[in-house]
Amino acid sequence: MPFLSDHHGCQGWKGEMAERIRAFDWSVTSLGSLRNWSHSLRSTVQLMLGSPVPMVMLWGPLGYMIYNDAYAVFAGGRHPYLLGCAVELGWPEVAEFNRGVMSTCLSGGTLSYRNKELVLLRNGEPENVWLDLYYSPVAGDNQAPAGVIAIVVETTAHVISEQRRQAAEDNLRQMARSLEQRVLEEVNARLAAEEQLRQSQKLEAIGGLTGGVAHDFNNLLQVIAGNLHLLARHEPDNGNVQRRTRAALTAVERGAKLSAQLLAFARRQPLSPALYDPRELDRGLADLLQRALGETIRLQVQLPAEPWCIHVDRHQLENAVLNLAINARDAMAGEGTIGISVENLLLDQTFCAGKDLSPGQYLRLTVADSGGGMSAEVLKQAFEPFFTTKTDGQGTGLGLSMVFGFVKQSGGHIEILSHPGQGTRVQMYFARSIAAPVSPAVGPVPRASAGQERILVVEDDSDVRSAAVEMLRHEGYQVCSAASGDAAMQLLAQGLAVDLIFTDVVMPGQIKSTDLATWARTQAPPVAVLFTSGHTRDMISRNHQLSPDTHLLSKPYSPEDLSAMVRSLLGG
Ligand SMILES: Nc1ncnc2c1ncn2[C@@H]1O[C@H](COP(=O)(O)OP(=O)(O)O)[C@@H](O)[C@H]1O
Ligand SMILES: [Mg+2]
To answer: 61-112 pLDDT, tens per residue?
Structure first.
């Protein structure tokens, strides 16, 4: 019976490949003409054709190919060319691989691969395919291996979807990691902002306390100083009295300096801000600093070509830089380089968060050293008044607190970057000012009878008042006094003519010192007003910054301070 003439109900035995195999002229191959095929060859081919799995037989040393319908699908555009083709000609792109297969299996071996990646040109284009491959020998008539049978299961779709899944998982893991990272960063930023807030609240609280103490302290010093001066004047020829009052007044001066430093920390020192060009740092201040610091310290000043101007009290700014430079020198044991640098900076919302600054243009003034740096503990307390790590007599602990108060009172921000052994950078930020420089206010018109003018002293503390009255009388002025703003206004309303009102800033009663000043300004000619205070208050100054036409004599003052101020206001 001719081969495959009856399919006996098997799909594969009557399919396309069965048809093609019967029609093919096998006599040109090592299988020989179909009619002469051995029983075992026929039954192997029939086994293959009956299988739903893609299978191919490679016959003889050249591997002539016979395959089933499922393999024809796998072969794509290569089918039907592959039928009866030597395998190396059929799949030239994987010729070497197939050579290995043939030699292994014709020697009786088997091979199997899972997801073997190959590049095939099934439809003219190279494509990556993944295959499960199983190779085993097929016996010839002499029962020795004469061919190879291959089961070829394509897993490309599965491998690609697996790769996609893997990539998606990696992606997800990556996203989860970066999300975790971001949450961590957010939390850390929040903690840092909270810590900053705690620090600033602490300094705020200490500031309130210190400012109050310094204010009362100044009033006491004023009484002591005033009476000491008067005592000295009453006993001009008593050497003993002169010596002792001088010693006592020196102590009063030290007390006054201390209380000025405390007021600076409490952001209540009188400031006279004006337009400041940072180039002044290089022009004037550098020389002064160099002299103060000594020859073993090198100063390096760095400025941009066009530094922005700021609005600050020049004297206090330079004092701040001096304090920072002295700290830097101490940190470097007196030897090394101190860097003073100025930068124009744009601060954004993120930077300003929790710093009491609004985004915008700022000048950053940095004082940097390569000294011993600060531990986290020291850094936490560095701005507190009286905090010092220096030995007795070496440090007062008031330097940084003063600088802190000054910067804050000037509407700026200050921060310290420091690590033990890695030096310190103190950075001060001040808002850029684009205002034109203010010309100094014009003083009152000079009067003819200098030294004979009438002065009204308004002061609620009777000791302070009587000392002031006596000092001014001693200078030759006509002096009258009032214990409150109300009493003063009553005298003025009754027609008391005065040339100057010398008034305490804060007093009990309806009429405030500012009301007296307003009255004085509206007189013709205007009456001069001199304020005195233990510290400045918002009543006469905004943020403790005096306007150019406000004159303030800080307590405690000496008779010389008082008479110089009065004389300058009266134009004498
Ligand atoms: N540049 C700096 N390098 C290292 N530590 C510093 C520096 N500046 C300040 N400190 C630390 O801060 C403390 C407080 O400084 P400060 O208020 O100026 O007081 P003082 O200099 O009188 O000790 C110092 O005692 C020191 O421990
Ligand atoms: Mg210091």
So the answer is: 999 999 999 999 999 999 999 999 999 999 999 999 999 999 999 999 999 9
Q: Which of 554, 504, 506, 551 is nearest to 526 (CA)?
A: 551
* Collapsed DSSP state (helix, strand, coil) of residue 349: helix
* CATH 1.10.1370.40 holds for 11-154: no
- Convert the pLDDT of each residue in 142-174 to its tens digit: 889 999 999 999 999 999 999 999 999 999 999
Residue by residue, what is the 3-state secondary structure of 34-58?
Answer: HHHCCHHHHHHHHHHHCCCCCEEEE
Per-residue pLDDT averaged across 436-448, rounded? 46
Q: Does the pLDDT value for residue 283 go beyond 90?
A: no
Distance from Cα 427 to the centre of ligand 1, integer Å: 14
**How many whole angstroms from 470 Cα to the centroid of ligand 1?**
44
- 437 has pLDDT over 60: no
CA of 316 to the centre of ligand 2 (A): 15
Nearest residue (by CA) to ligand 1, atom 10, is 327
Task: Look at residue 221 and tell me whether its pLDDT is greater than 70.
Answer: yes
Question: Can you tell me the distance from the alpha carbon of 146 to that of 149, in angstroms, rounded to the nearest whole number?
Answer: 10
- Which ligand 1 atom is at minimum distance from the Cα of 394? 22
CATH of domain 274-431: 3.30.565.10
Residue nearest to atom 12 of ligand 1 (CA): 382
| Per-residue three-class SS string for 167-209 | HHHHHHHHHHHHHHHHHHHHHHHHHHHHHHHHHHHHHHHHHHH
Could you tell me if 251 and 225 are in contact, meaning their C-beta atoms sit under 8 angstroms apart? no
More confident residue, 194 or 412: 412
Residue 536 has pLDDT above 80, yes or no: no
Indicate left, alpha or beta for 482 from its phi (over 0: left) and psi (-120 to 50: alpha).
beta
548 prior amide bond cis, ω within 30: no
Question: What class has domain 454-569?
Answer: alpha beta
Which ligand 1 atom is nearest residue 383's CA?
Answer: 17
Ligand 1 atom with the shortest distance to the CA of 401 = 17
Domain parsing of the chain, residue ranges: 11-154, 187-265, 274-431, 454-569
- Pocket residues: Cβ below 6 A from ligand 1: 327-328, 331, 369, 371-374, 378, 382, 387-390, 395-401, 424
User: What residues contact 90, with CB distance under 8 A and at least 6 apart?
Assistant: 65, 78, 81, 82
Q: What's the chain's average pLDDT?
A: 90
